[in-house]
Amino acid sequence: MRLNLITFVVCFFLTVQISFAQPIEIKINSKTTFQTIHNFGASDAWSCQFVGNWPDKQKNKVADLLFSLDENEDGSPKGIGLSCWRFNIGGGSADQTTETKIGDRWRQSECFLQADGSYNWEKQSGQRWFLKAAQKRGVESFLGFVNSPPVWLTKNGRANSDGGNSVNLPEENFSKYSQFLVDVTKNIALKDGVLFDYISPINEPQWDWKGGQEGTPWTNTEMAKFCRIFGDDISKAGLSSKISIAEAGFLTHLFERGNDSKRGFQIKEFFSPESENYIGDVPNMAHKISGHSYHTVKSDSIMNLIRGKLHDEFQRVDPTLDFWMSEYCILGGNGILKGGGRDLGMETALFVANIIHADLAVANASAWQWWIAVSKYNFKDGLVYIDEKSHEIYVSKLLWALGNYSRFIRPGAKRINVETNQEDSLKTSAYKNENGEIVVVIINKGKTPETVQINLTGNTNRYETSKNNSVAPLGKVDISKPISIPKESVSTFVITQ
Questions:
Q1: What's the pLDDT tens digit per position in 450-468?
Q2: Which of these, 356, 285, 287, 284, lies nearest to 325 by C-alpha position?
Q3: How far is 222 from 207, CA to CA, in rounded Å?
């Protein structure tokens, strides 16, 4: 009898404690704004050169998943509505009959420029199909990016280097490389109706790229010399395309020495007028700089420290300069989640959503772009996975978690201020679209639900990605009342006031 009484008392007090538990307060101030969001994107490397030549049903399914803002008959989303598509302007390793030092054909690419100096505009047909498919589905921004200059122009006749820190391109060929990019941009605009808004001629210049895939190192001085030539050529061609740099291999290369002083400090090197490598006044130079979030995500404290330093460097050098996080996928060395092993579930989705939050809310990123949109590998590098032989398509929760941002936070949105009394429990950010909608994204990585109270009112629609939902529309919700955020979920609230 005594035991039953004790049990009753304990249960009573637990019930009282739960009933009086205060929700996590989320206070949003739409009058305090931060960066303007340009886009959310992904790249076509390397799979789209193959998938773009698949049967219509399969390739249209992939395109819908990546680009569509439409809904299925049951109200579920067809896709995540990416607003930027990165087109890989190939270096030509796939066209070579000699040794490429790239053993995987899915990491080789074709090139429009041929060995005799002529152009073959039928090349990269699969990628060009996706380019037009993205435009048809409403993608607003297009970026052409390069890993290596055409093999016919490089020092060693390959699309990867022999090591070192100097570019695998003779300086006398800088002008030829520049003209190549102008010609490609003009032809794709003419034949496919897509003009690149941005052209990124250099990728991860800090690495030596001795094998495995296309790539070349560049020093800051080499980058500046090339950009001056390229800017003049774009301007003379009458193109509106902007030059996008620097695709830094680590975020730290933007504000620290990194592995080489000749390839570090890139914000100051390129956008401080006192620098010998200043290119802020180059014609058609985008007033932004890009970096990759690899190997900076071992813990929340490390993520926030690095991104805080990055933000401080922008404030020191040029507070008006935009930052783009232009490439990420899960590699080794994260200390939490390894890159090997395909994961279609929530573990990877939540891991990446946490990084998106840090890049947007701490580093003030104006764009967030995933690496390869479509993967055939047993690796955590894709949004959509495919089987090379059967053409089967496998959809990841990561795709949908990114969709909690990309589908609702549209180009031109402003990030707005969020204050909460329990920052560790949930990761919350908020945005105001140009049409006045407020979008609130809440990540709950924890193993238990959390209750929140948002200080806004208005007509609110809720969407959720979790074990059982994929940006699922959960209908209207009264946000004037406490709301439960499920465990291991990403929730989006779209509020019309």
A1: 999 999 999 999 999 999 9
A2: 356
A3: 14
- Give the residue among 413, 428, 437, 446 at the shortest CA–CA distance from 491: 428
pLDDT digits (tens, 9 = 90+) for 188-200: 999 999 999 999 9
User: Model's pTM, two decimal places?
Assistant: 0.95
- CATH homologous superfamily for 38-408? Glycosidases (3.20.20.80)
Are residues 77 and 403 in contact, defined by beta-carbon separation less than 8 angstroms? yes
Distance of CA 291 to the CA centre of its chain: 10
> How distant, in Å, are the alpha carbons of 167, 201, 244, 254, 280 from that of 271?
21, 17, 13, 11, 5
Annotate 304-331 with b (16+ C-beta within 10 A) or e (fewer).
Answer: eebbeebbebbeebbeebbbbbbbbbbb
- CA 338 → CA 329, 347, 404, 405, distances in Å? 11, 11, 23, 24
State in Å, rounded, how far the first CA of the chain is from the last one: 57
| Alpha carbons 283 and 97: distance in angstroms, whole number | 38
DSSP annotation of 22 reads P
Superfamily of domain 21-32+418-496: Golgi alpha-mannosidase II (2.60.40.1180)
Surface-to-core class of residue 296, CB atoms within 10 Å of its CB (0-12 exposed, 13-18 middle, 19+ buried): buried
Contact by Cβ (8 Å): 143, 197 = yes
- Indicate the domain borders of the chain: 21-32+418-496, 38-408
